[in-house]
Amino acid sequence: MNDATTSGPARPVVLDVWCELQCPDCTAALDDLRALRERHGDRLDIRLRHFPLSKHQHAYAAAQAAEEAAEQGRGWPYVEAVLARTEELGRKGERLLVEVAGELGLDAEEMDTALIDGRHLLAVDADQAEGKAIGVTGTPTYLIGGELLDGSKSQEGLRERIEEIVGRLLAEQG
Known about the structure:
174 residues, single chain, 9 helices, alpha+beta, 4 strands
């Protein structure tokens, strides 16, 4: 029997990105994430993980809003739109989170309700707890192939390192 027919398609390599939507460094990391997504397509599963920092007043609400946007089918576009407006988020807070939802064609009223009723608190808390457990201290931080890469100090060289790991993991899958 041919192994190729029984093993099925290769599983995508998973890149977990601990991010905070009021973080300027996470905004800078978006270009790298876009380039990785463009280069690897479905072979790379980039998963946003929440790690709101206490120094940013609206980060926790923004993480909940991102979860609601994902539930409405527009997670990444929402994350990118909010990250493009981190300074405005600092000024407007939850009002901006609801505005962005409306701009993207999401149900803004449902977004507002989700922020009030806290339906996504557990998902955000679980991400943050898992991040702390594996040593995440700042954002962005990447986990790929068992390697933790801290981008909170500098993004320098991280995309290249992620590329190396993705290449190795994909080659191992054959």
